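TL;DR need structure tokens for one chain.
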Amino acid sequence: MKILSYKKVKEANLIHLKSVTNSIGQVVDFFDDEDFTIIGIIEETAFRTDFFDDEDFYEGSDYNPILINGKVTCEFDIKD
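>> reply
TL;DR here they are.
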């Protein structure tokens, strides 16, 4: 997932869709970016997801983003 400017995302006043907690306890906030993919924020790291809707993001989902060493990926990419 592509890292974005946290400041620019916050200044854009996007519509907050939901918050979920990923498997390592990070709170992930999701925002609607109209005709583009959903934007997420974890611990002041903003990123563009690969998804156009938020139905795959829920507690326990393997699609939840996770922030490790400054990079954001889906949880299914780090399992095993």
